[in-house]
Design a protein that fits this description.
The protein is α+β, with helices and mostly antiparallel strands and about 150 residues long. It has a domain at about 35-135. Helices cover about 30% and strands about 35% of the residues. It contains five helices and seven strands; from the N terminus they run ααβββααββββα.
């Protein structure tokens, strides 16, 4: 999983004075704070059910076979998609009342399209376009899997 921290020039100078061990501890602490992990996966007739964890909370999400194939095609990880679903920067409503979760990664955007089967979120497809094409940046949250 990739994390980006933007520092001021003053903060960069202070960080440069720290030893490597201290830098590594700070980096690891940050990752532990916001890391989404895949705890387990179970086969399902439509794909796989992933149990996702973050900060002591868990959520179950069904990734359809099509969505799993799309992650491979776009060369993104299931963890990136899981992070997009659990920690989106925005969630929009798409066609047929489906939800589209967005999370930026450099100049691109993970777009995770999902709907619900009862209470279970079902990831239908995912793609990785340039962020300028779709990212609104208005802090819109039409839905949140972790409430």
């Amino acid at each position: 999983m990739k994390y980006e921290i933007r520092l001021t020039k003053r903060a960069k100078k202070r960080l440069d004075k720290l030893g490597k061990d201290t830098k590594d501890r700070i980096s690891q602490a940050f990752k532990n704070l916001v890391a989404v992990e895949i705890i387990s996966e179970q086969p399902h007739s439509r794909g796989k059910i992933y149990v996702l964890g973050i900060s002591g909370r868990t959520a179950r999400v069904l990734f359809t076979s099509h969505a799993i194939e799309r992650t491979k095609r776009w060369e993104i990880t299931e963890e990136m998609v899981a992070e997009t679903q659990l920690l989106p920067e925005e969630v929009l409503i798409g066609h047929r009342h489906r939800y589209i979760a967005h999370k930026r990664h450099d100049n691109h955007l993970v777009r995770a399209v999902y709907e619900y089967d009862g209470l279970l979120p079902v990831l239908l497809t995912v793609y990785f376009p340039h962020k300028d094409c779709y990212f609104k940046g208005d802090g819109i949250y039409e839905d949140k899997i972790l409430k």
